[in-house]
Design brief:
The structure holds two protein chains of two kinds.
Chain A: E1 4-7, E2 10-14, E3 19-25, E4 29-37, E5 43-48, E6 52-56, E7 59-64, E8 69-74, E9 83-91, E10 99-100, E11 104-109
Parallel strand pairs in A: 2-11
Antiparallel strand pairs in A: 1-3, 3-8, 4-5, 4-9, 6-7, 7-8, 9-10, 9-11
Chain B: E1 4-7, E2 10-13, E3 19-25, E4 31-37, E5 43-49, E6 56-57, E7 65-67, E8 73-78, E9 87-94, E10 104-105, E11 109-113
The chains are: A mainly beta, B mainly beta.
Chain lengths: 110, 114
Amino acid sequence: GIQVEQSPPDLILQEGANSTLRCNFSDSVNNLQWFHQNPWGQLINLFYIPSGTKQNGRLSATTVATERYSLLYISSSQTTDSGVYFCAVNPRDNTDKLIFGTGTRLQVFP
Amino acid sequence: NAGVTQTPKFRVLKTGQSMTLLCAQDMNHEYMYWYRQDPGMGLRLIHYSVGEGTTAKGEVPDGYNVSRLKKQNFLLGLESAAPSQTSVYFCASSDRGVGPYEQYFGPGTRLTVT
């Protein structure tokens, strides 16, 4: 089945720094989503981005489907950005499932 | 809109006991999903449903059963709990298939099996 790899696995930042998280996937996909899991465990939709670039405030995401990767940019990080960031893909051969990566754990210190 | 809700939030079971987790959504979504999340891992799909009265197996279905008798509810059952089922369980729903439609997640149920 499709493999989803995220890097780096852990990231420690000081408040105000910028960061880039990467998601690589091993096969064609219909859909890619980025989620933030906050320290209380809640999963929050960030982006639905099968291709192209989207921006939402300090966050933006780019997916290059032909090269099988997606990037999540966090600018001017804040302590509230802490948590785990997951990408999840919907394989081209199965429209019913999301396959999750193992996540990037981000800690932002004041 | 409450979105996706899960009951209970926490539960401790002894090996061999049974229980049912309830997921409810008020967005009139067709598709519903049950995932489990183990420490340091992403979510893995247990079972899902593409509409009322339907269920299908995901990546890790063994030891679980599900039912979707009403469109808004999706039940996950553990008939004989095992320590390997200690995990956080998330329910999700989407309007239709995952392809072009976003999934919305509940707050999770933390289950410990001793």
